[in-house]
UniProtKB/TrEMBL annotation:
It comes from the Bacteria. Residues 115-337 form the ABC transmembrane type-2 domain. Keywords: Cell membrane, Membrane, Transmembrane, Transmembrane helix, Transport. The lineage of its organism: Bacteria, Bacillati, Bacillota, Clostridia, Peptostreptococcales. Pfam families: ABC2_membrane_3. One of its GO terms (molecular function) is ABC-type transporter activity. Belongs to the ABC-2 integral membrane protein family. GO terms for cellular component: plasma membrane. This is ABC transporter permease.
Amino acid sequence: MRIKAMVIRILNQLRHDKRTLALIIFAPLLLLTMIYFILDSSTMDLTVGIVNAPQQYMDNLYENNIKTVRCTESEAMQMMEHKEIIAAVEMTGGKLYIKLDGGNSTKAETALASMEAAKKNMIPSSERYDLKTDVKYVYGASDLSTFDNFGSLLIGFIVFFFTFLISGISFLQERTTGTLEKLLSTPIKRWEIVTGYVLGFGVVSVIQAAIITFFVIYILDIMMVGSLWLVLLITLLSAMVALAFGILMSTAATSEFQMIQFIPIIVVPQVFFTGLFDLSPEWTLVGKFMPLYYVADALDKVMIRGSGFGSILPDVLILLSLTILCMAINTILLKRYRRI
């Protein structure tokens, strides 16, 4: 009987907690629906820049589902830097010279296999089909592991995930225990409270970001081409955005359980927009509204492509803007908790 009474009490509690009930039922459905549409529209569109090659070779590439574009060598390097092409091809002097973007080993291997097949299918009378292939990796390497491919993306996600969760729950506890209301009854201003929380957790985030970065680079030996300081900067920005965002989402939660349930709605969907999947243009546009998109983009540029600060500056500015925006919204929302 006591167990029965306990079960009835819990069910009644959930029945009156409409927000928790909605999260339990609809959050998984929302996540599954998003996964369905993203994976259903996922495509691997590969484009190769043709510096010098006969038309038949280009036609053979097209038959292997590879798009081609005529360009000069300098134009090809620029397009490769911006991920517009996967490789640049030049057929001259009895050799097939391929400059390859190996930042994503799956794409690189697919493109390389298609280029080899296109070469072998050429008619001998129009061009030699026994050309030797010379492959040079502009980014990445031939022995790039799966973890090297996606490890840089996971660094940003892990930092974002734990910082979002811990900051949100901590701020929620401040609110539910009455500490926040007591603070608001003092002369301290709302923006000072928000800034204090963000900077306070920010100190811990600096330590967290440093530990994770050093562990992944020096212990797990992930590929690292660019500056370590830039990686630390990006992971710190990821933590700061997560801090401000976690505090913001805590205002919509009434319990730690609800805060945890925001993860499949707020955090998990962002993983699909970090480069793990080839998305359609529509879904790529959606990804540009998510913080982890810019974190992953910046980490990929530094760790895999060896880019400098100028290349990641747009990502840095957007992440800073998102942090400031969330802090401003948090400051406004604190009005509802002032009781005097």
